[in-house]
Every structure is written in C-alpha cells, then in structure tokens.
Amino acid sequence: MRKVIVTTVLGTLLAGVVLTMHLAAPIWGAEKNVAKVRPDKSATVQTVAKSKPAGRSVGEIRSQLKGAMGTDKIVFIRRRTLNPNHYYTEHINSEFKPGGGICILDLNDGSVREFSMPKPGVVNRFDISYDARKIVFDFKDAHMEGYRIYELVIKTGKIKQLTFPPKDEDALQERYKVRTLWDSNWDTYHHGESNDYHHGTDDMHPCYLPDGGIAFVSTRCKIATICDGPDIFTTTNMYRMDADGKSMRRLSRDMVSLFTPVVLPTGEILYSRWEYVDK
Fold it and tell me: Residue 237 and residue 203: Cα distance in Å, rounded?
C-alpha cells in the first residue's frame, strides 16, 4: 500500500501553479508512470519562470519539491477562485464559474496533464486513494444543480459519478425555489423565484477511508443555520458510503457545518467545524 501525503501549497513554492491551486496531494511511491503525460501549452511553466524566487531556476524549484515531498508528481485543481460570502458556503452563494479540472504536475519537466471533466463545471476538493490509482472529488456541472461526488481512474482518465440527487430533490427545489430570493448582498429577502441557490442538496469534500469506503459532507440532513431561512440548507453533516456510492450513512448530528474531512494515521477522521458564535 502506497502512502499518500496531502498538503496545501502556499507561497511561491510553485509560483504560477499555486495561482490556480486549491489543494495539492503528491503521489508518493513507485507510481512513476501514473499516466502518459501530455505537455500542457498553457502559460503555467512560463509563469513559474517569471515569478520564481531570485537565484533559483524553475528546475531547481521542482527538484527541491521532489526531495521535500518524496514524489515526482503532484495532483492539483485548476479552477477560478470561489467567492462565497462565508468560507463554508461555497455551495450556496459562490458564483458559478465553470472551467478547469483535475491536473497532474510532473516535477521532472514541468508538464501538466489535465483530465477531461464530464461537462464544464467546478471541482471543489479531492483526495487520492491509498494505492494512488484513483482520485475522488466533488463536482458541480450547472449553476442550479448541487455538488456530487465523482471518482477518477488516473491511468485511464475514466470518471464515474458516485452520488446522485436524492429522490425528493425535484420536490425540494419546486417547494423552496419560489419562497425567497436573497439580493446580491445577501442582506434582504425578496419574493420571487431564486436565481442564486438551487434549494436542493449538495455532496462535497470526499476522502477515502482505510476500509475502502468514502467519507464526505452533505446537506442531505436538510438543516439551515440560525441566520439563514429554513429553505437554505447551509449545514453540512458527515456521511460515509461504500466505494461504489451505495450504503450511504449519516455519521454526525450537527446543527452547524462540518467540512474538509481527512483520515489520520490512527484511522480517525479529522475535520473542521464552524461554531455559531453570533447568537
């Protein structure tokens, strides 16, 4: 079993790449030929060269990263910056700006392989399987649709959708979409059909579990925080499912949002929790 390191890349380590990077997870181990690398003709490497720290070449920076991370490949997300009004409400009021996807940066030559998404959309977060063969991620392919969980096979690039809208999704949207509409500043309510929020459910922030399952957060609990209307499912709770997306089970009973789960070496799940302090 290969070890997987997950790290958030900040500063100027990857310079131009970090401008489009949300989370990076290097593949560590013997997975040298994960897939045939297609040179990317974007300005990524050129941007690195322009903004590299003084006195170090792009090749030197990549070499140092290889030594520090113990890998020659890094998986990262390329997308436009999310802009929600709270850091845990990207599924509610971040602008839908489709484009980009999941990429692999080769630290040997600076080339980038970008995987084709099912449709133009937004990738939020991802995790790499313990054997470094698959990537699980959440993806939103339309403004008025929720995030769903997908899985990518690195070798072939094949993508499979794992979660789907619940059976009552259409009824939820039909029931709530005409009730309220926040204005662009989210300060006041307006009556009429909402163009801001789909009023359904979202499945987000997946991570692989040691038993082969997948943990993630979801608004399937259908809970709003105190400062939101009951028709806006702000709160995300922790769920788990089998590798094929079946046997979904709720793990937490929280009135405030849980997010970004990761598995510790002990097998425990570490996650962030938003506390409601403005009561």
Answer: 10
